[in-house]
């Protein structure tokens, strides 16, 4: 940890100011301080004005990403008050997620943060990452009912689909998120037979995950049962106990 980090963790604003007056700051100092949740130090750095508030840290996140990820509402509002901040800044992490702080808020189902970010006026609720994920994908994948409902109320596309990746409905099935399956289905625009990885359907995922309630829901909505497969031909990813429930 740098001297600045030690002073910030100790809550010593005077020491932080002294270090700033004598030291060359690292480019990632704002993101580093945000990650540690050090509000008073963050205020000092922002007032100093030498650093880029949108700078990515070594793992590819910005201060805004950390504020949302850790649910630090006061920090989010402070960062958004900076004129030069980009509310739609993209991450560049090791997973290649390339997502916005808004998508992280959608995963958390933090409606207050989502509203604050949207009010800034530069956030696109339909934003698609390089991997074809929208904020709705993130919310469905994380099982965030609040996030899904809020996004649907903003008019996002329910059944967006890329041939390389599953739909939000399929992601919800994969995670066994029954309430999200119900909400998405109620919109009347989902393809319950859409194929995901290894040509698996939402029903395949719920069966594999051992989610009988989700299986029953999908079958009740008219999903086609999975054809019986000889034991010797079962895919490695589908245990026999899961497959037989659908025959």
TrEMBL record:
It comes from Penicillium malachiteum. It comes from the Eukaryota. PROSITE patterns: ANK_REP_REGION, ANK_REPEAT. SUPFAM superfamilies: Ankyrin repeat. Keywords: ANK repeat, Repeat. Signal peptide: none annotated. This is Ankyrin repeat-containing domain protein. It holds the Pfam family Ank_2. The keyword Phosphoprotein does not apply. ANK repeats lie at residues 59-81, 131-163.
């Amino acid at each position: 940890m740098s001297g600045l980090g030690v002073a910030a963790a100790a809550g010593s604003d005077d020491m932080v100011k002294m270090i700033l007056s004598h030291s060359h700051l690292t480019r990632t100092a704002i993101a580093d301080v945000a990650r540690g949740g050090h509000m008073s130090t963050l205020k000092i750095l922002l007032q100093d004005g030498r650093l880029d508030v949108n700078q990515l840290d070594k793992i590819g996140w910005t201060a805004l990403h950390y504020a949302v990820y850790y649910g630090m509402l006061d920090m989010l509002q402070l960062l958004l008050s900076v004129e030069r901040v980009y509310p739609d800044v993209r991450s560049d992490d090791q997973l290649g997620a390339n997502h916005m702080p808004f998508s992280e808020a959608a995963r958390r189902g933090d409606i207050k943060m989502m509203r604050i970010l949207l009010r800034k006026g530069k956030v696109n609720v339909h934003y698609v990452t390089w991997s074809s994920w929208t904020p709705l994908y993130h919310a469905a994948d994380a099982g965030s009912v609040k996030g899904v409902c809020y996004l649907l109320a903003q008019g996002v596309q329910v059944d967006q689909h890329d041939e390389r990746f599953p739909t939000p409905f399929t992601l919800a099935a994969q995670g066994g998120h029954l309430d999200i399956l119900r909400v998405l289905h109620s919109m009347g625009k989902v393809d319950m037979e859409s194929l995901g990885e290894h040509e698996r359907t939402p029903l395949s995922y719920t069966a594999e995950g051992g989610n009988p309630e989700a299986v029953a829901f999908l079958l009740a909505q008219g999903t086609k049962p999975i054809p019986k497969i000889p034991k010797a031909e079962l895919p490695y990813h589908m245990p026999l106990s899961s497959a037989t429930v659908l025959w």
